[in-house]
From TrEMBL:
NCBIfam families in alphabetical order: PRK00431.1-6 (NF001664)
Segments forming domain Macro: 1-171
Transmembrane segments: none
Organism whose genome encodes this protein: Selenomonas ruminantium
Cross-referenced SUPFAM superfamilies: Macro domain-like
Listed name of the protein: O-acetyl-ADP-ribose deacetylase (Regulator of RNase III), contains Macro domain
Top-level taxon of the source organism: Bacteria
SMART domains per the UniProt record, alphabetical: A1pp
GO molecular function, one term: deacetylase activity
Length: 171
């Protein structure tokens, strides 16, 4: 049984899971939002390892160690920038969740904490992002029922948390 849930908080502040997911950009060299918070909390070694990854395409995922963060790994995924929904945004966001979880499985990671990918700087509407996030995580868990103990979203504001929690309540 995999627990799927939400929590309000800062994803860097305490141990939530074996791996936290960073909503990164294609350079993987840091930025604002949750990306900035993760780099600040992890320390400069994280950036040094990121420099060796040669970036990451939108919809794909990469992984590093977590250094000073209270988890073992950081998984980086690059969400789509919202351009009105006609530029394959939904497919790319689906691919972010799927590739992040596939990478976690390759590394034997049994718990994963996601932020709300793409809904900050990249402007993806929260309701639509939450639908994709929850559908995709549920699909991966159905395909791999033994793989994960827990998958959660650590959400930074009450409104975003309410939207994701509402999606999770739908069957
Ligand atoms: N813990 C959890 N969630 C957070 C935190 C935190 N510490 N900080 C912000 N959020 P964003 P994106 C929430 O902008 O839209 C960066 O510059 C935030 O409130 O971090 O995918 C990257 O380098 C929002 O709900 O990511 C890219 O250039 C969510 O995390 C770009 O932003 C995502 O917001 C990626 O944009």
């Amino acid at each position: 049984m995999t627990v799927i849930r939400t929590e309000l908080g800062d994803i860097t502040a305490k141990h939530y899971a074996d791996a936290i997911v960073n909503a990164a950009n294609e350079s993987l060299l840091g930025g604002g939002g949750v990306d900035g918070a993760i780099h600040r909390a992890a320390g400069p070694e994280l950036l040094a390892e990121c420099r060796m990854l040669n970036g990451c395409k939108t919809g794909q995922a990469k992984i590093t160690k977590a250094y000073r963060l209270p988890c073992n790994y950081v998984i980086y995924t690059v969400g789509p920038v919202w351009h009105g929904g006609t530029h394959s945004e939904a497919e790319l966001l689906t691919s972010c969740y799927r590739h992040s979880l596939e990478l976690a499985m390759e590394y034997g990671i049994r718990s994963v904490a996601f932020p709300s990918i793409s809904t900050g700087v990249y402007s993806y509407p929260v309701q639509q992002a939450a639908e994709i996030a929850v559908q995709t995580v549920r699909a991966v868990v159905e395909e791999h029922p033994e793989a994960f103990d827990e998958i959660l979203w650590v959400l930074f504001d009450e409104r975003t948390k309410l939207v994701y929690a509402g999606e999770l309540q739908k069957c």
